[in-house]
Amino acid sequence: MPHLHVLASTSPSGLQQLWFVLIAVLWLGYFFLEGFDFGVGILLPFFSQDDTDRRVMINTIGPVWDGNEVWLLTAGGATFAAFPLWYATVFSGFYLALFVVLAALIFRGMAFEMRGKKDDASWRTWWDRAIFWGSALPALLWGVAFADFLHGVPIAAGATWTGNFFDLVKPYALLGGLTTLSLFTLHGATFLGLKADGDVRERARRSGLILAPTASVLMLGFLTWTYVSAHTTHHNGLVPPFLPILGLIVLAGVGWLMREHLEGWAFVATALVIVILFVTLFLNLYPRVLVSSVSPHFSLTLSQAASQPYTLKVMSWVALIFTPFVLLYQSWTYWIFRKRVSRPDTLPAPSEIGS
Amino acid sequence: MALLGGITTLTLARWQFGVTTVFHFLFVPLTIGLGFLVACLQTAAYRTKDEHYDRMARFFGKLFLINFAIGVVTGIVQEFQFGMDWSSYSVFVGNIFGAPLAIEGLLAFFMESTFLGIWIFGRGRVSKRVHLASIWLASLGTMLSAVFILAANAWMQHPVGFKIDRATGQAVMTNFWAVITNSTFFGAYFHVLFAALLTGAVFMLAIAAWHIRRDQQKTTFTKVARIAIVVTLLSALGTCFMGDTQARQMDVQQPMKMAAAEALYNTSDGASFSLLTIGDLTGNPIFQIRVPHLLSLIADNSWNGQVKGIKQLQAADVKKFGPGNYVPILWITYWSFRLMVGLGLLMIALGGFGLWLVRKRRLDTSAWFLRFASLMLLAPFLANSLGWIFTEEGRQPWVVYGLLKTSQAVSNVSVGYVATSLIGFTAIYTFLAVLEIGLMVKVARKAPEELSARDDERPLELVY
Asked: Are B142 and B175 in contact (CB under 8 A)?
């Protein structure tokens, strides 16, 4: 019978570092792409005056949201393969939070497919609520989770969880959650500014003046806290000071870019800010993957969580060969659907539409 | 950890896994099977310019998409529940089991979702050729995803290409090629693939038959029914053939599962197979119908071949693995196995009779067959579920055969958490099932309208 042991931490090998970077890239890709899907969902009740507006908004992400969500599945699968102990500790430890995220993603995904299948106003209203909550909850909780990774969760020796659900909702983590929530909302607004036409585009453009400052303040608070706690004695992550400063400058400029009708640049800017935020968090985390709030000695590190070199090598080859194709055809879909979505002159009900 | 009445995390985690997996797998085979058939219909429409095929491709395409969505959203739970409920398992197998899961995302899910997006939204925006290619690529994606998940499952049934790492206690991969060419994988993959095609074909046939019987668009639906009948017969035979080869493999690799399929207590030569049993399964039935030598034929492909019995296997396992109970729950394995096989044979009959009627040109007038075909709608779904229940329950008490017991695999989480998520997910699945079935029935009953030429040329501004 197997008895599982967690080894003492050593300095990570090149392969382990590579896979830490790749996992980070998968999460970055997920937040960059699904970030605006979440944003569009959160803004759905605010940028729409009627059902057609809502349909315009949903159709901007219609062809791509499912492909964007696959980044999450791949990140999950790759973490399972490359860092089994990280995957197992996080997913069982964040049990209830993860349950909420999964339930939210289920309702949101169903809503896109379902809302148009019946020509009934209250039917659609319910699904629109599902889209809103199904976007807002994950947008908040992913931030909470990543803040927890860094600020510590109650794990004792051998990656054994000793706390409960409430250990996950500390002020720092909540601030992290609000930061991602506001950032993804802004990202959704810049995406709509780029992809929608007519009233929705106009509302998105104007919203930047409120959303960008809100996100800036939250991110400033969150990053300041992150950096202050990074200078405690036990912290051994990487802390490049220029990154968050750059992020904040870019973020502050988004409102202006949108006001000046530079929607394309505004979208690039919010994408960049999301990347900078998560790069900062991953760098701070390294070489750990999960910080222990019980004692720094119990923090889970890359070398402890990683699979054997053979598995990592096999996975590296697979990733090297196939990732270019995925990036190529996924980019191609964005090219196919590059046209802005606008209110049509005549409109068949979605339930009448053949596929 | 135990709840009131001695309910443990383990028990609830097992229910949670069973409920999620069975629910998820109601939709997956239909996605694979119907995706392929819709791609075929669209190809027929593209090549022949026959308006009937085009209409059918759209009609079944709509049903395909309703079904696809629910498969996607439940698939996320499927992947994450390993870490949530089975963290010891995840740590133990991650080196090996994680790789196919990650590769499934990279190779299959991206392909499936991206090209399906192009297919749904691209009509009129991309050329007809590209539109056709997109459904084929999405279909290929669905078939590829089954490759990786079954490679992962095959390793749980028959672990190969690994060693146990002394320092960590984990199973670590030593040969990736061995893992993806596992002999168990090959049989399981084609068994599942044929079963998925069968599911799509019976689904299509049942709906077509319903419309033919009501005289709605008879010509169109008869065309589809003919295709569905041929696919039903071929894929039912294929499923049966692969299942037969799997049984012989199982007899060698997991003899206890074979014995449990028949509830065979004592090793016998030329063992018979019971079609049904009334009374208990302890060897003293009230009533039984037995077919002589059949079990030996199934397990060993020979008239007098030896099939090992539960008692002997239990004793051998105790010797090998130490004290414990190595017998799965017999009523589950016994009944799931014969019901699955029985339904499979019934579907062969469906295809066979159907083909005979097609050749006699009496398909659209044979009321009893059309009724029978519609009733068979549930058969493939039931058979798929029973198949998984059999193979997973039959492996118990092991989660990884011979290496890790299910009882050792569970997470160290409180029973309250698992209870919450079990109740929550079950409620969500029930809600989704009611919704889904309601919508499916509504869409399936409505005969597709004639399409005007304009629909084809102009891209829709708003699809959703």
From this structure: no
